[in-house]
Amino acid sequence: MTVYDFSRLSILLVEDNQYIRHTLEDLLRHFEFGKIITAQHGQEAIEILSTSAIAGAPGLGIDIVLADLIMSPINGLLLTRWIRNSKDSPNRFMPVVLLSGAADDEYVTAARDLGASEFLAKPFSAENVYKRLLEVIDYPRQIIATHTYFGPDRRRRHGSYDAQADRRKNTDKDITIVYSEKKTTKPAKASDVWCFRLPNALKGKAGGMGSKGGGEMPMALLEQAEEKLERKKLDFADWALKYLSELSNLCADALIKPGRRAAHFEKIHLLAHELRGQGGTFGYPLITRVAKMLYDITHEHCREDDSAVEIVKAHIDTMRVVIRERISGDGGAIGKELLAGIQEAIEKNSKVG
Question: Which residues contact residue 13 at a Cβ distance below 8 angstroms, ignoring those fewer than 6 apart?
Fold first, then answer.
């Protein structure tokens, strides 16, 4: 198997959470990417990509985009749509890997339909990130262009698919094969389908030109990356406690300012999303489970009365205990007791509400 060298590859990392952005940047550095460019949100990423499209901007060419899904003001979905469809995009064919703790079917489907190449769910490990990057290098999806879509083939590569459900034709005689990336406009007719079959430039840059099958990075690099991620777990407790303090402040403010609760609950929902995605990555899967519960009950149009605030506080108190007592895994009997306490608080306050 070919051993890849990522030193000639450039990757754009887009993540609004500073702690996670630094963690992923460290992983990519251990993978020995030649250039790692970071952006705090989709808008900054678009500015970077737009600059790289301008003639006379040497060295800024980006090979892969790794972006969080939920960001503000421009999220990963809108960023992906811009890359695939904007005339200002430097490369509408570049792989886009979306990363999110909200790995629900609706998000995965939305990412696929807007042209994401791969989806990486949080919590993540160094190996998960590594495998997704290898996937876009070794097995890039062929690009499909229709009257309404431009992006990677949305059907599965390694298995059967339902062509009728996909509503696209599936044989070479029914489509137009394109061998040049210069033809990036969409077909004018709704019935036309173009399939771009281009050389695998990324594999060539990584040192796999002419090799068959997949490649790999030196295992020592992956082991070093896993060790680095393991050390980051020691810092997670401090980071999580800051978020829990922010959640507590939002609850306190919501109780004295009932007229602004919609905004408070929206922020609580987003913070729960952050904790949901990171707990398992840094050794606290129980944090991920409780944060997901909080995320699910603070959705748009959720209850916003005093009882609802008390339910939120019960989730916060539980996560504080998990962090304070360094409860790993599912927590065993203690974990069950903590989850039962949340359920009791929900039932109690539901009756009051």
Answer: 21, 24, 25, 28, 36, 37, 38, 39, 66, 67
Q: Which residues contact 282 (CB under 8 A, 6 or more apart)?
A: 123, 232, 233, 236
Q: Name the one residue in this structure whose structure tokens are 């030193």.
A: 7
19: its two tokens? 């702690």
Residue 179 contacts residue 220 (beta carbons within 8 Å)? no
- Tell me: the pLDDT tens digits for 39-97? 999 999 999 998 876 544 544 689 999 999 988 899 999 999 999 999 899 999 999 99
Residue 230 has pLDDT above 90, yes or no: no
Could you identify the residue written with the tokens 């959705």?
299
pTM: 0.85
Question: Could you please report the per-residue DSSP string of 30-80?
Answer: HTT-SEEEEESSHHHHHHHHHHHHSTT-TT----EEEEESS-SSS-HHHHH
pLDDT score at 54 = 59
pLDDT tens-digit profile of 139-174? 998 999 998 899 999 775 444 334 444 444 455 567
Domains identified in the chain and CATH numbers = 2-138+201-217 (3.40.50.2300), 141-199 (no CATH), 232-352 (1.20.120)
Question: What single letter denotes the amino acid at residue 164?
Answer: Q
User: Residue 124 carries which side chain, given as an amino acid letter?
Assistant: F
What CA–CA distance (Å, rounded) separates 299 from 117? Answer: 28
Element (H, E) at 121: strand 118-121
